[in-house]
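Posting for a labmate who doesn't have an account.
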Amino acid sequence: MAVAGETIIVRACKQDGREHRRWSAELLEQDGTLLVLDAYFPEEITHDLLGTIAVGTHSLEYYWLDRWYNIFRFANPNGELRNFYCNVNVPPVLAGSVLSYVDLDLDILVEPDFSYQILDKDDFEANAKLYNYSAEIHSNAARALDELVQMIDNRAFPFK
């Protein structure tokens, strides 16, 4: 079990196990299957959909070890809510101080006014063919999207 204040290495992987992204975050709390991590962008990032993410952008990250999604709450360096970004993924695994998950390339971008758009359906379908996703992955991904939309619409934790 991880300890609050511990540095966690987050690994986002593709279905074939290839590491797609890696970053460090501080564990704020572990409550049952929920891990809350705290991270900052150490360098400016340009993202296709999110635009330029400034150095110092804060990322409060919510991972459930038994859910098929995670949620990032991005705040600008001045503390103002930038947006939420939700990833549909295979439930993560925490091994020591490394948290790894398989990103299924299906996302939801949530604006500060809680309007949202579902992103990358075409990427999900292309990878479903490439990696021969099982019926279980398809059904869990669809259920994760539905659950996230309900959470957003109802302003359920952590969408507050």
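Reply:
Got it, the structure tokens are right above this. The two ends are 28 Å apart (CA to CA).
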